[in-house]
C-alpha cells in the first residue's frame, strides 16, 4: 500500500498498531517525546518498556520530531493518553494539511472540559476529517497477531471505510459504525467499570459479583450515552460490551490491575505507580461522575468508584451501598414503555 501514516505516541498501543501496519507493508513513523527513546528504539528495534520481546519491523522509523512524523502522511494516528491529546494537537495543528485524516485510539474523556476526543479535535482542528478506532484489543495480543475485532466510527461512511481498509488484516478485523459518540463513550467508560471489576477481584469477591458489575455497568454507560446522543445499540457492540468484557477479565488490562491493587488496600497513587503505564479510568472516573451530574443520569457504580478514588470512601462500604440501593426494575429507563404497560 502506498499510503503513509504518522503515529503520535510510542506507548504500548501506538507501537502495536505500528507493528500491525508495518507487517502489512506500510511505512510508519512513530513520534516519541524523548530523544533518548528515539535513538534506543531505532537501534535495538524493540520497545523495551511497553512491548518487551516484540521486534520492530524495519519499515518503522522512530522520531522525536513531531513535524517530521506528520509530514506527507495520509493518516495521523493519535495514540497518546487522553490527558496528552490537547497538547499534542496544539503542536501540530498549524502544520496539518487538508485531506489528512486524524484517527484517534485514546480511550478517555478529558477532565475539566468533559470533552470526548472528537470534540477536542473539532475545537482545535475544525476542518479535519476524524475517525475513532476502538474495541477489545490489548496491545500485547495485537502485536502477536492474535485474532482481534475492532470498530471504526466516523461521521462520513467514506472515511470509516477508508480506515477500515487501511487497518484490516486477516488477524485484525475492522467493522464500521456511524456512531462516533457511542464508540468514543463505550471505550472511555468501560475503563471506569474495569477499575470496579478489579477492585472486586482485589477484595476476593467472586465471578457473580464481577458479572453483576459488568452488566449493571454497561446499563449505566448506555443510559448516559443515549442522553449524550449515542445510539444505545452501539453499547451492545465491540466498543461497548466487547471492550468491557476484555478489560474486566484480562490480566493485560492496566485498569483492572490498578483496581485489583486498590481492592487489596493500596491507595490510588500507589496503584497507578505499581501498574507503571497509563490507567485511563482513573481520570475518566472523574469525568464520568461529572457527566452523570451534568446530564442528570443515575450512575450508581460510577458514583461509588468516584467516591473510592476521590473521596476516600471505603471500598467495602461502596459494595454495601450498591447492594442496598432501592429496589428497581431491571432496565426500567431503557424500556419505559414496556414497564408502563406491564
Ligand atoms: N494498551 C492497549 O492495549 C490499548 C490502549 N488504548 C488506549 O491508547 C492510549 C495510549 O495508551 P497506551 O499506549 O496503552 O499507553 P502506555 O502507558 O503504554 O504509553 C503511553 C505513551 O504516551 C506517552 N505519553 C504520556 N503522557 C503523554 C503526554 N502528555 N503527551 C504525549 N505523550 C504522552 C508516554 O511517554 C508513552 O509513550 C490510551 O488512551 C489507551 O486507553 C487503546 C486500546 C488498547
Ligand atoms: O482498551 C484496552 C483493551 O481494549 C486496554 O485496556 P487497559 O487500558 O485497561 O489496559
What is the structure about, briefly put?
The chain has 342 residues and is α/β, with parallel strands linked by helices. It has helices spanning 12-23, 35-44, 66-70, 82-92, 117-124, 139-142, 157-167, 180-202, 207-227, 238-249, 254-263, 268-275, 280-295, 300-310, 315-323, 336-340, and strands at residues 5-8, 28-31, 46-47, 51-55, 60-63, 75-78, 101-104, 129-134, 148-154, 172-177.
Explain what this protein looks like in three dimensions.
The mean pLDDT is 96. With 342 residues, the protein is of the alpha/beta class. It contains 16 helices and 10 strands. The chain has an 8-stranded mixed beta sheet with strand order 5-2-1-6-7-8-9-10, sandwiched between helices. 49% of the residues are buried. The protein starts with a strand and ends with a helix. 1,3-dihydroxyacetonephosphate binds at residues 107, 136-138, 191, 194, 243, 246-247, 252-255, 280. One of its GO terms (cellular component) is cytosol.
Average pLDDT taken over every residue: 96
Which stretches of 5+ consecutive residues score pLDDT under 50? Answer: none
Radius of gyration: 20 Å
Bound molecules: 1,4-dihydronicotinamide adenine dinucleotide, 1,3-dihydroxyacetonephosphate
- Arrangement of strands in the largest sheet: 5-2-1-6-7-8-9-10
- What is the string of SSEs from the N terminus onward? EHEHEEEHEHEHEHEHEHHHHHHHHH
CATH architecture name of the largest domain: 3-Layer(aba) Sandwich
Biggest sheet architecture? 8 strands, mixed
Full CATH superfamily name of the largest domain: NAD(P)-binding Rossmann-like Domain
CATH first level of the largest domain: which class? Alpha Beta
Please indicate the count of domains.
Answer: 2
Amino acid at each position: 500500500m502506498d499510503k503513509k501514516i504518522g503515529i503520535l505516541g510510542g506507548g504500548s498501543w501506538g507501537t502495536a498498531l505500528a507493528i500491525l501496519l508495518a507487517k502489512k507493508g506500510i511505512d510508519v513513523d512513530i513520534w516519541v517525546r524523548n530523544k533518548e527513546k528515539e535513538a534506543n528504539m531505532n537501534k535495538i528495534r524493540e520497545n523495551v518498556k511497553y512491548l518487551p520481546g516484540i521486534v520492530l519491523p524495519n519499515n518503522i522509523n522512530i522520531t522525536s520530531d513531531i513535524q517530521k512524523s506528520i509530514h506527507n502522511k495520509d493518516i495521523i494516528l493519535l495514540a497518546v493518553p487522553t490527558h496528552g491529546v490537547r497538547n499534542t494537537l496544539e503542536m501540530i495543528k498549524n502544520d496539518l494539511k487538508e485531506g489528512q485524516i486524524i484517527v484517534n485510539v485514546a480511550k478517555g474523556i478529558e477532565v475539566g472540559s468533559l470533552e470526548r476526543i472528537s470534540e477536542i479535535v473539532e475545537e482545535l482542528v475544525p476542518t479535519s476529517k476524524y475517525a475513532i478506532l476502538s474495541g477489545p484489543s490489548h496491545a500485547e495480543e495485537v502485536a502477536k497477531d492474535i485474532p482481534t475485532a475492532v470498530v471504526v466510527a466516523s461521521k462520513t461512511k467514506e472515511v470509516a471505510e477508508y480506515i477500515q481498509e487501511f487497518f484490516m488484516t486477516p488477524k485484525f478485523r475492522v467493522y464500521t459504525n456511524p456512531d462516533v459518540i457511542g464508540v468514543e463513550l463505550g471505550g472511555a467508560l468501560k475503563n471506569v467499570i474495569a477499575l470496579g471489576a478489579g477492585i472486586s477481584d482485589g477484595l476476593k469477591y467472586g465471578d457473580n459479583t464481577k458479572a453483576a458489575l459488568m452488566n449493571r455497568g454497561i446499563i449505566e454507560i448506555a443510559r448516559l450515552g443515549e442522553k449524550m446522543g449515542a445510539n444505545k445499540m452501539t453499547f451492545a457492540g465491540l466498543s461497548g460490551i466487547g471492550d468491557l468484557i476484555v478489560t474486566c477479565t484480562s490480566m493485560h488490562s492496566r485498569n483492572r490491575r490498578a483496581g485489583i491493587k486498590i481492592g487489596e488496600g493500596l491507595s490510588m497513587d500507589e496503584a497507578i505507580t505499581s501498574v507503571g503505564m497509563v490507567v485511563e479510568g482513573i481520570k475518566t472516573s472523574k469525568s464520568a461522575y461529572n457527566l452523570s451530574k451534568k446530564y442528570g443520569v443515575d450512575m450508581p457504580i460510577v458514583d461509588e468508584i468516584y467516591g473510592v478514588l476521590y473521596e476516600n470512601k471505603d471500598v467495602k462500604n461502596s459494595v454495601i451501598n450498591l447492594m442496598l440501593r432501592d429496589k428497581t426494575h431491571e432496565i426500567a429507563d431503557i424500556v419505559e414503555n414496556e414497564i408502563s404497560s406491564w
